[in-house]
Amino acid sequence: MSVDRLFDELGHFKRFQACLYFAAVFQAIACGIHYLASVFLVERPSFVCAPPGNVTDVLYGNYTGASLEEVLPFFKPANGPMVVRTAEGKQWELSTCQRTQRINPTDFTYEQLVNRTTEKCDRNYHYVYDHSEVYQSIVTDWDLVCDREWLAKLCQPTFMMGVLVGALVFGDIADRVGRRRILMITSLCQFVFGVSVAFTGNYYLFMFIRFLLAMVSSGYLVVVFVYVTEFTGNKVRTWTSMHVHAAFAVGVMMVAIMGYLVRTWRSYQIILSTCTSPFLFFCWKFPETPFYLMAKGRLQETQVLLDSIARFNGLEPGRLRAENLLEPEEALLEKEVAAGVAQPAEPEKKLSILDLFGTWRMAWRTVTVGAVWFISSLGYYVFSLGSVNLGGNQYINLFLAGAVEFPSYLIGCYAMDRVGRKRTCAPALLLAGMACMLIIVVPNDIEVLAIFLSMTGKFAIAIAFGLIYLYTCELYPTIIRSLAVGSGSMMCRVGSVVAPFCVYLADIWQFLPQLIVGILAFIIGILTLWLPETLGEPLTSTMEEAEALGRKKNPEEGKKDPEEGMEMNLNQRN
């Protein structure tokens, strides 16, 4: 199929493609929203085990009050318990997961040497939460603290498992029923499931619907990359593919804004789920991609679409015939098959993932590329999810974590086409690794510097995350390219599933997540230096051509035209 001719005739990114592109990418904002919404859904405020009876006096260090709500904003478990006196005259020392009754106290003071009885708080007891910052979250609604804290921590990993399943399911279905139908179904389901989450009455139903929401969000993100790629020419494909990620970043920023403005999780979830709902009113007008229609032999529908594109772009309809997009051999076979004088071509041998490891050179390349996919995803979500734990204002931190992606994609696009894919990816990973290491040595009282280094790391890892899709396409031949990108995407999703658990390691040591990401990013950044450069190289068709990438050419072979390299980005974020 002559891809270049289609866009040379109808435009690489004219009015039709621009309208379609920005409309399709608009809904990708919802994917960024749902991927990071759990940051504030599972937010845990300060809390203590509730005492029996009505509280009349509260002591905590130098703070005093007549109710727990007055003192809770200042409570820190590491600084000792909160002492309360009830209307019955009993005194209790309250901690997060236990309460201790003083036996026969002499007076009401913070420290007192008397006998005590301690009882552990569990689901049979109530907890008192600080509502000054977080009025309502799933933690406060369903008491996901103490021995049930692990349930709250499962929220994000379970969502990422849904992302993995959704990418596998919808990616395959899109090749069978078409991109347009999947875009419509997944965008509608994002709205329905997103709103439904807000009306769940228990934890397990909440998790189930969130899992379904993750599947359709991932499905949309998978297919929208393919969709916009098949409507844009190679001259702008680097730009258009990278900036789908920018829409995802807008979603991250909206999570921060809504998290600050709306402190009840149900209202927060409804608002976030409806902010891209206008997309539902015009997504049904989306056309199927010309390449899918031609791959299915629907040449008449393809011709109608080509005429519509030409008319919308101010060109003469009929200037490009669908039959002319077929290669001569394909066109001849199509006519012979239609006339009944030839049989369809035999399907090619199906390749397996083992073919990515066919030689030592290709095996090394596959392992390195898979590692880049993994650390890009792991680092992206560790920096994003962990931004709320850096100190300072958590809402500003998350907003900056999204905003910093815009310059990263702009610089990434420029660097990829100027200095090359490898020379952009490797320094980006090394910079991310250095930023993580420097965060560890920053004194705790210099929060601004820690936030700056974290945003530097997010900036760098976003560059690697944005370019690895295209770089993988160029490193492998046509016969195995989709399998290579699919395998890399699987490693990406493994990283996204591991990321929440990595963030939780901060409970063991504050900087353990940064240490893990920093070491891995630095090592993988060095390994990336051994990958071949693909800038200016044409896409390879055979394993032999792909294996020869990076080897020095003989002078008599001549130079290859850089314009022959058709840049493609056929996959999703995870």
From TrEMBL:
Residues 108-536 form the Major facilitator superfamily (MFS) profile domain. One of its GO terms (molecular function) is transmembrane transporter activity. The chain crosses the membrane at residues 20-42, 150-170, 182-201, 207-228, 240-262, 362-383, 395-412, 424-442, 448-471, 483-506, 512-531. The keyword Iron does not apply. Keywords: Membrane, Transmembrane, Transmembrane helix. It is a multi-pass membrane protein. It comes from the Eukaryota. GO terms for cellular component: membrane. Its main location: membrane. Residues 548-563 have a biased composition (Basic and acidic residues). Residues 543-574 are annotated as: Disordered. It is found in: Membrane. This is Solute carrier family 22 member 16. It comes from Salmo salar (Atlantic salmon). The lineage of its organism: Eukaryota, Metazoa, Chordata, Craniata, Vertebrata.
